[in-house]
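Illustration 12: PHOP2 phosphatase.
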Amino acid sequence: MKFLLVFDFDHTIIDENSDTWIVKCAPERKLPNGLRNSYQPGHWTEYMGRVFVYLGDNGVKEDEMKRTMTTIPFTAGMIDLLGFIGENKELFDCIIVSDSNTVFIDWILKATDFHKVFDEVFTNPAAFSSTGYLTVQHFHAHHCAKCPKNLCKRKVLKEFLDKQLERGVSYTQIVYIGDGGNDLCPVMFLKKNDIAMPRQGYTLDKRISQLAQSLSPVQCSVVVWSSAIDIMSYLKLLIKE
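Figure caption equivalent — predicted structure in token form:
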């Protein structure tokens, strides 16, 4: 009996968006209008690439970025929840699927020693170039019309489950914890026995409600949370069953 916990990162594990938080490193803690207005829907990764070039051009170094990123607050109750999962790893496999990047997530999880809780992290690959600039790439290519160009979380989840099956690992239930519009695609993939846990009042919660109103509800159970303590209470009930 093993459960798979799938976490989004921004506004789920941490209470902010890691990509917009990095702007605190910019001169006067803001981006020039031309750069800010250059974002095109579905092309966030390219936009962040330009932001990182701007930071590099302004002499922002890796250590300053790291210091800034490790000040991001965790969502209420999240430290308790991750501690609980860490103590019960024999029951839970735990992955992150995020549109952030490997550098940011690595810094934040290692600073709090929570990287051990997660079996795998699926996010956009990032690295510092020889000139000290942070660069970011698309996670993968996909054909899903609903998702941003760089990442379809449903595809990630499906491939992970297939790989686990090949290793002889199958899950009693999948619990998907997220907040954003790009979390809807993987939630639609969940089966009747699985659980979607959208953050209260955020885009995912609203989209699931809209689907229910238009009589095409998601197949899985839906449990809304506002603090990660709600998630922990629910997981405690699941493992008692």
